[in-house]
DNA sequence: ATTACCTTAAGCTTGCTCAA
DNA sequence: TTGAGCAAGCTTAAGGTAAT
């Protein structure tokens, strides 16, 4: 395939618009011979005379007439594209955003986030992909647009912004015997637990803190996500420790009760991370703005004062 | 013959590539 | 990073073509 000189497209547009080498040259701030050379290159590239002499004037060939409108449109779009900010019309942009986030986030908040994004980019689509503890290059290589969660291994150039502080809470099936009395470390540890496979960590924080006071959970099931742990707890007498926002959103629907853990797990900062390459991209800015906006809403961020059914099952 | 416009030729400038 | 070599593209000058 021959290489394409986009300057020729601009020259062709000027020639087709003016119908004159001299006028096209003036329009493009070139000399007439320079424009004549461009016309020669256009003729060679298209294998068509494009403009032919008719007395003192030049008239377009049928091929040139065919190309007039599409060339004009291409030049206009290129002009818009080169404006600061990309000049892109978000309302007409077709874009799939790929967000890496904990599974539960996509399940619970995916639709809300998409709706938020589509207020600015109506044709946008959203794809959540699961977290991976072995792939810190996804942002750098452009395989994902945004990384949301407890991001520990982002590249040095990766930019992050805090979304909210996330607490871990306990969940158990409504009416579970654990909730019949105060949840102490000893009673808590004595129950059978479902744990979540952690990104880049061997143990959940709750296990480390319990070990410090001489206790250990009886983990009988490990699942890949917090949502999986919630489902397991809903269908058994297993106890799960999950992020509070997710628990709050789905617990009642699954017949689960939320309770405060008997150990003080430090809150974790949930962030969104992106590559500097897309820092100024309007569509990417929209995505981050929507994620941040959603994270500040009552349904996404941390719980406020909320009473949860069950003895000793209060969230402060 | 004059005028208007296009083409050709020669030389210069600019920017890219590549090696040191 | 820098400098040499090279190609592309520009300008100026001169010539060609067609209408008046």
Give a written overview of the molecule.
With 316 residues, this protein is α/β, with parallel strands linked by helices. It has 3 domains: 6-86, Arc Repressor Mutant, subunit A, CATH 1.10.10.10; 90-163 and 270-297, 3-Layer(aba) Sandwich (D-Maltodextrin-Binding Protein, domain 2), CATH 3.40.190; 168-266, Periplasmic binding protein-like II (D-Maltodextrin-Binding Protein, domain 2, 3-Layer(aba) Sandwich). Helices cover 37% and strands 21% of the residues. The chain has helices spanning 6-18, 21-27, 32-46, 62-81, 103-118, 185-190, 205-212, 226-234, 244-250, 282-296; strands at 51-54, 57-60, 96-100, 125-129, 146-149, 159-166, 168-173, 192-196, 218-223, 239-243, 256-259, 268-274, 306-307, 314-315. The strands form 4 sheets. It has a 5-stranded mixed sheet with strand order 4-3-5-12-6, with helices on one face. α5 links the parallel β3 and β4. α5 (103-118) packs across α10 (282-296). The longest helix has 20 residues, at 62-81. The model is unreliable at 301-316 (pLDDT under 50). It binds a DNA duplex (20 and 20 nucleotides) through α3.
Helix and strand arrangement:
Layout: H1 6-18, H2 21-27, H3 32-46, E1 51-54, E2 57-60, H4 62-81, E3 96-100, H5 103-118, E4 125-129, E5 146-149, E6 159-166, E7 168-173, H6 185-190, E8 192-196, H7 205-212, E9 218-223, H8 226-234, E10 239-243, H9 244-250, E11 256-259, E12 268-274, H10 282-296, E13 306-307, E14 314-315
Parallel strand pairs: 3-4, 3-5, 8-9, 8-10
Antiparallel strand pairs: 1-2, 5-12, 6-12, 7-10, 7-11, 13-14
Helix pairs in contact: 1-2, 1-3, 1-4, 2-3, 5-10
The structure holds a DNA duplex (20 and 20 nucleotides).
